[in-house]
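User: Structure tokens for this complex, please. No commentary.
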Amino acid sequence: MVETDWTQVSYDEGRQTLKKWRECGVRRSEEVVEIWEHVISRSPSSLGDEEWAVVEQVCIASLDSARVDLAQECIDLLHNQFPHSNRVLKLKAMQLEATEHYQKALEIYERLVEEDPNNNSYRKRKVAVLLAQGKRLDAIRAINDYLKIFLNDPEAWLQLSELFLLENDVPKAVHCLEECVLIQPLNSMYFRRLADLRYTQGGADNVELARAYYERALKINPTDLRSQYGILLSNNQIAASTKNATEKKRAGLAAVDAIDNLVNRYQKISPKSNPESDGILNCLEAMKVTIGSK
Amino acid sequence: MTDLLLDPAIRTWVFLPIVVITFFIGILRHYVSLLLMNKKKVELENIADGQYLLRARLLRENGRFLPKTSFNARRQYLCAEETGYLSRAQQRPAKGPNPMDPSQMTEMLKGNMMNMIPMIVVGGWINWTFSGFVTTRVPFPLTLKFKAMLQRGVDLVSLDSAWVSSASWYFLCMFGLRSIYTLVLGSENAADQSKAMEDQMSMTGSAVNPQADPRAAFKGEWEALQMIQHQFAL
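Assistant:
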């Protein structure tokens, strides 16, 4: 794959790329800043109405890539255009966050929430501040409050599950991921993570569930290598622990199948791009022999 | 039949003025409605209600991906006798928009005035000023049935029905300018009368407004969730 030099793209291409990233929520902050500084900022006014959306995007991107100077420029631009906008105020608070003035940022968010209680982005920023300060328990509490109202927000549930995992509370993390699955049943990542957690929990039932979820994840996204490994491991576990002879045999065969698929995947890619693939292949072959011998 | 020849003065003093007047009245309508309408405030509780309803539906549809215990826990959370959100929401006193509430009344009045006054005043005025002109013709032949639509104010039996009278031209402009308003004012504009009329029709037609009575919606979801048999899909 050829890396594009984002400082050299044409004006129109830069504009299209920014638009695409803005709409899909792609986080490529440094590239966004590059496009802005080398291409778009030559004549921002020719963007027309799009200009302000682009400036907002660049502002957030520059905060993300620690370019507080550029962010200040963007905020000034936006402030001149929309002097009383809450959205600009939010950017200011985000700048305070980036410069570690958490308390001030939090105060602004509190005020924004009070003014417009229906806008969930301010509440989410509040949680982000708590996370940045490392106050995990407070963050958990804040997300819980948030989810009492906006309870169909998979982002928040995912964040909450990660926080619970950091607190080593696997059952609660499972609950959160199950919510994610309910909300977006076609996202293979949720299924995979749920399977990971079920496998971690252990016990015959949970490993079976894990296997089902891994299979589902692989069905949705056939290129998901991690799910393939998950199928291998959970089948291996089931084959080792179950008393039922037919079940044992079936799980063993499925594990061997999974190994074959994995070997296939590794043989397709050249050893150059992944120097470890030879080692992994040897390891898989050895595992296949041990499973086959049982 | 010899073709009808229209005075060029009709084009300058009737045909074009009607287009321009209709257009600017639309623009005026847009800005006046911006001035008068205050944004509808959505209560936080309404948002939560909507979210819970959506959640109950999602649970019904996608609950098959969860193991039975997880599914039952969630169902219990939503439907439990005393504590479930859906059950509690059913017992809430009905609020709904109260028709006697003065603020609601002014709101409704404003909406109606915005629709009716331009309709009556401008329509009447156009009818009075420009009545009786044959302004233009559509470039294709039409059947006699269209005479009533296109030749309002000109009752001539022998006139071909492709000709359009001034009053009908006003109506055609009124309904046909929608895309031009979208071009000029953006998609969320209030200039278009035909849209406002559609709104009114649908208001009288079906009263299924999500905010009208959340209790009925909650009851429906509650029943559906009680009925459902859980079956693990994987």
